[in-house]
Write a structure and sequence with these properties.
- Strands 1-2 form a two-stranded antiparallel ribbon.
- Helices cover about 70% and strands about 5% of the residues.
- By secondary structure, the chain is mainly alpha-helical.
- A hairpin with a 2-residue loop joins strand 1 and strand 2.
- It has two helices and two strands.
């Protein structure tokens, strides 16, 4: 295998057919993490115990965000295609 086919040494990249799942997975992880961190800081400040409070506040929203993103992404793509000129 070529080096470009590995994410990290010894760990091969996923086949392209997984892209429709990996992209929403990563997007939901990042967006829910950022939003829940901001909400947790706003509610309790930068106090001790922030990390466990944040992780507790993040788990449930992410478990909802990922399946919702899988469902709405095709609709969002169609709406985007109506609003943006094709290249």
């Amino acid at each position: 295998m070529k080096a470009s086919q590995h994410i990290l040494p010894g760990i091969p990249k996923l086949p392209a057919r997984f892209a429709p799942i990996v992209m929403p997975l990563l997007l939901s992880l990042l967006m829910s993490a950022i939003v829940s961190l901001i909400s947790t800081i706003k509610a309790g400040g930068l106090a001790p115990g922030l990390l466990p409070r944040w992780l507790g506040a993040w788990g449930l929203p992410w478990s909802i965000a990922f399946p919702v993103l899988l469902l709405v992404l095709p609709v969002v793509r169609r709406i985007t295609a109506m609003l943006v000129r094709a290249p």
